């Protein structure tokens, strides 16, 4: 999968939109410098994908987005050209798997939000099976990422407000080896393991259903 000619313009537009947002990043040293990698993060606000994508030390960056965002033909074309792959949050489709595999087979970086939805209060919810299936199926390193502060991105003039957003990357790990067949009954455990790694990077008040993980 390739990005469109306007991909650099989209990144520049995102940087401009968040010009007044101070982003504090930790853990970049845990990010594999080469090879395929999946970034799994919590999801608070629609600002999460561009902010996280701008801080991932790889380029280009691809991400999975709910398929409903692609219903508008023009916006869907812009999303695809910007590195977005449509995903059915309740499951997986052949098209999503094919495109995600193309990204990873070419050593790319793929962002997944395993919760499958935004949680505006910042508290983690349980992982959905779609993202967990993809993360487990490819057997590539997973880098957990924790985002805090994007709950303040709201209002018509949000881009004119100053704020601080924190993004923490954790140590990479693998769920499985490559090309291991994933059993449906294992998806819940895989999803929980991913979200527990994310929860460890978050303040206790953000951990939600994963509040019992160690600090």
TrEMBL record:
Gene Ontology MF term list: 1-acylglycerol-3-phosphate O-acyltransferase activity
Biological-process GO terms, alphabetical: phosphatidic acid biosynthetic process
Keyword Transferase applies: yes
Entry-linked SUPFAM superfamilies: Glycerol-3-phosphate (1)-acyltransferase
A Pfam family the protein falls into: Acyltransferase
Keywords: Acyltransferase, Transferase
Domain Phospholipid/glycerol acyltransferase residue range list: 37-150
SMART domains the record matches: PlsC
InterPro entries with a match to the protein in the record: Plipid/glycerol_acylTrfase
Protein name as annotated: Lysophospholipid acyltransferase family protein
